[in-house]
Amino acid sequence: MKQTATFIPTLRETPADADVKSHQLLLRAGFIRQNTSGIYSFLPLGKRTLQKVENVIREEMEAVNSVEVFLPALQQAELWMETGRWYSYGDELMRLTDRNNRAFALGATHEEVITSLLRDEIKSYKKLPLNLFQIQSKFRDEKRPRFGLLRGREFLMKDAYSFHATTESLDDTYNDMMQAYTNIFTRLGLNFRAVIADSGAIGGKDNHEFMVLSDIGEDTIAYSDQSNYAANIEMAAVNVEYPVSNEAEKEIEKVATPNQKTISEVADYLNVSPEQCIKTLVFKADEDFVIVLSRGDHEINDVKVKHATGAKIVEMATPEEVLEQLGCEIGSLGPVKLKSPIRVYADHAVKSIVNGVTGANEAGFHFINATPEKDFSIDTFADLRFIQEGDASPDGEGVIKFAKGIEVGHIFKLGTTYSEPMKATFLNDQGRAMPYIMGCYGIGVSRVMAAVAEQFQDDNGFTWPDVIAPYEIHIVPVNMKDETQRELGEDLYKLLKSYRYEVLLDDRIERVGVKFADADLIGLPVRITVGKKASEGILEVKYRRTGETFEWKREELLDHLQQFFKK
Predict the structure, then answer these.
(1) 250-271: pLDDT as tens digits
(2) pTM of the model as a whole
(3) What domains can you pick out in the chain, each with its CATH number?
(4) Three-state SS for 305?
(5) What is the DSSP letter of 251?
(6) Interatomic CA distance for residues 2 and 316, integer angstroms
(7) DSSP letters of 501-559?
(8) Using one digit for the tens of pLDDT, what is the confidence trace for 453-470?
(9) Theoretical Cys-Cys bridge with 230: which of 40, 134, 195, 450, CB 3.0 to 4.6 Å?
(10) What are phi and psi of 455, to 5 degrees?
């Protein structure tokens, strides 16, 4: 492609509203432009890169017998009502009505649509397993779109869905998908980890996220320093044995703690450590209120609370709800002498506290010498806290460390989460109607492009890996008004294209400094400069990623390029 015939609007200045490097460079190098918050246009370079990411994904999906389809983005509300997600998915689901006042959603995901399709078409176990995927735009009304393509309201996604007659069949496909995803992200050159994750609004269980390690990641990964264990911090199990104090139990006593509400304030005021304090939070689990206790130096994990209570939706109770349910303010809450019957959950660490401090359910007062089971009852002990750096790794090997990660892929074992409520069944080998056993497998395609952009860059621009660079070779004649340079540049352009190289020819009449700056900014793997030695048939070749430069004769060029690109 000749540069004068395409659309590459590069920018010299960094856009003020772009706060991460990948976003800045994608804008500056002319790959994308923002239409409105969280919504972007892909310009020619961006579209080519995006298509190459898609190509890698398609190849690996087809290698595990996943077949491509294309499903509607506009989905009728009735399908989402069958699974209950019309109400539970939340405000991110973009809802609209047509001229007949019929409700629809713009596809945030496609479990309901694909399940409705298969229940009408697949009736026998003989046609299972079946694995279908699509690459399509998704829509989510993000509260705070940010980081360019990493958190948008419209984005490109690969979503696959598998249907099975047995759990063993699902396990096989899940393992195939795990390998396919590993292949995809390895081919793209990403530094990533597969981590144990929460299923969130998708549902189901047994799932892994694929996280690209990056300082700008929104998720925290807990990983072992001595094994392959890795998990999203929300899902990392805490396997810590807490020593029980041999201190003699004392009589509980109510003491004044005027204006002391937080754990740190109360601990300082009473001259005790936060470990001796019992933190009390109130959650609304579906329609029921529950109390959750943790040690004062620990943070309660609402995902674990959700799993412990079995609720579909868990959220913190509001101050008004706490006051109505327990008759006191949040800063004075405690499990002793509750004023209304309410189920109490406690993290395992609470069991080891002797003579602890807890709220007295009265403003300005706390109890000291409070001991579980002696002074208050606990209905259920469970792992309810966030893991911390330095905790033992759940697999028993090493200790936990933290890293930031960008989620680029997620695979789920859905089981019958969707097929049961939607009455999507098949006849098994005994002629009995059974719900499909399902799997779900997603990759954020545009997010992957941004993650690669975040990892492959330097101070001057992108250093794209060969597999997804928009073009492989950038030919830059220094002076297009020089007949020799122009003719040699165009001759090379035709030659390399005939050998099936993807070539961008900078045929602009522009200053050489501008051309070189744009070439570095765009970041194609190889730059060929046609300059003063053009009359001698000598070219300057630069490898963008390493910065290495060479002078090659025209007749040597193809052999060197073949070696570089391994063609």
Answers:
(1) 999 999 999 998 999 999 999 9
(2) 0.83
(3) 19-217+406-453 (3.30.930.10), 253-382 (3.90.960.10), 471-565 (3.40.50.800)
(4) helix
(5) -
(6) 58
(7) --EEE------HHHHHHHHHHHT-SEEEEE-GGGGGTEEEEEETTT--EEEEEGGGHHH
(8) 999 999 999 999 999 999
(9) 195
(10) -90, -25
